[in-house]
Amino acid sequence: MLKLYYARPSAYARPVWLALLEKQLSFELIPVDLSGEQFEPEFLALNPFSHVPVLVDGDFRVIESLAILDYLEARYPERSLLPTDAMVLAKVRMVQMVTLNELLPAVFRLLVRDENSVELEYAQLRAINTLNYFEALLEDSPYFAGEQLTLAEIVAGTLVHRMPDLGIALTKYSKLNRWSDRLLARPTWQQIALSSEEWSSFKRRMRVIPKIWQRRRHQRINALSQQ
Predict the structure, then answer these.
(1) I want to staple 83 with a disulfide (CB 3.0 to 4.6 A). Which of 88, 101, 126, 137 is the partner?
(2) 2-79 is classed in which CATH architecture?
(3) What integer pLDDT is reported at residue 36 of this predicted model?
């Protein structure tokens, strides 16, 4: 059986969790406490870069969210999450990459909300720029690939609906707002939904966890340098 090492709030692990559910695959969820468990030897044996998700399929292990999604699509092509048309596939890939390279860093900065007002303003601008791009790219289709739910939704759909919680309303993005509501109504999205208490706890932890990670990384660097 497939095994997914994950953390419920992880923006990298949640798309893989969703893909497994959408493909209706059998799998085991193995939680990893990101307060420090990812730096323990047992987990480092699975992923030497100390982050989730990790997918284990028999004797094969895959790290990195996008690589895992591609592996699942190629290994288990039933209930496909990728279009075959070149232009539509490019749209899906663009949404995936823009989400991870532009929106996600902005979300992290908005969650931490440190004293650097310039960085906070830049994060807001990055998020707004991404939402504008998605709104235009979506056009009048239910999904980015038209009628087919794809990895574009799997990746972007776990973040976009959180923007109002971070001070950026979706009311100006009518198409994207309807798209997000459509996703949240799906049983798979409801299955991975965070409760309000979980989300509030995650936001609080995000203000202290980076310091914990920095300290553990320094310990890891020292350990590696002595090998």
Answers:
(1) 88
(2) 3-Layer(aba) Sandwich (3.40)
(3) 84
